[in-house]
Model the fold of this input.
Amino acid sequence: MSETRVLYIDDDAGIRRLAARALERRGYRMTVAETGAEGVVKAAAQRFDLIAVDHYMPGMDGLETLEALRRLPDPPPVVYVTGSEEGRIAVAALKAGAADYVVKTVGDDFFDLLAASFEQVRARALLEQEKAAAEADLRASNARLEALLGEVNHRVANSLQLVSAMVRLQATALTDPSAREALEDTQRRIQAIAQVHRRLYTSNDVESVDMQEYLGALVDELAETWSTEALPRALSLAAEPIRLPTDRAVSLGVIVTELVTNACKYAYPTGGGEVRVALRRIDDDIFLLAVEDDGCGIPEDAIPRGTGLGTKLIRAMAQSLQSIVEYDPTHTGVRATLRAAVR
Done:
């Protein structure tokens, strides 16, 4: 307590002397000021841990002094001292920023009350400082973790891009059409996952993905993959701005890739046609994905066409979202939909 520096502001010389003597006996390092203006100057010139301000002073009264003290950079806590028991004065002081108030009385009990108030206010101030420091440390730690996660996502995206390039090179070296097709499908699946990690390391949010941006980039990639100079592929996207956790975004991206791939392979055997992808919110916590075409459709009583692995992937990714992919039998062509929770 000997290190606690206190400024006592009171126009009564006798009270100032008594306060300085009584509080120094209790271990405080005391400085006194006769007027509010003098107190503000001293508070601005040196550092105090606590300030006590009397209410009734000529010129600048206690409330005006308190207001001026609160305007100082990083002001210390102020205990308001008043000889009046009127509650309105205490309320006004607390509203103006006082940490506590003490009613001035005659005798040594007043200084005991003042010292007790100092101890409580000082303890509360130290606790608030420790809390602020802990919160600052936590923010700094979170910033470091987010930077680390961003770097991890960057490296994962680069690694997946390298794997995708290697798969593409391997596919071009194959002469077997079915084997080449299987590797090209694998490459598209890798790209769908890589797109998620690219979104994460370029975003301030490393826990969720903006599906509007993600699906936009994914659909553009798929359109480029399935287009040729002679036959450009028409893929369209209508997506609302929905954010999904990373793992759910990956699952949805793989599903979109598989459904679009199936549509591009089988919907229009004689030429190009449009494939549409839509994502919208149908409830606060539920979204609806739809991938549709106007092609030849699925033969009645037949399962959706595509590679066996693709069908299994769609089912597995839908299960990870606690959902299933459904096909609309009334739609001309194929319309696949999935309803799932945002989280």
User: Anything to note?
Assistant: The CA atoms of residues 318 and 324 lie 5 Å apart. The chain has a mean pLDDT of 87. The first strand starts at residue 5 and ends at 9. The radius of gyration is 36 Å.
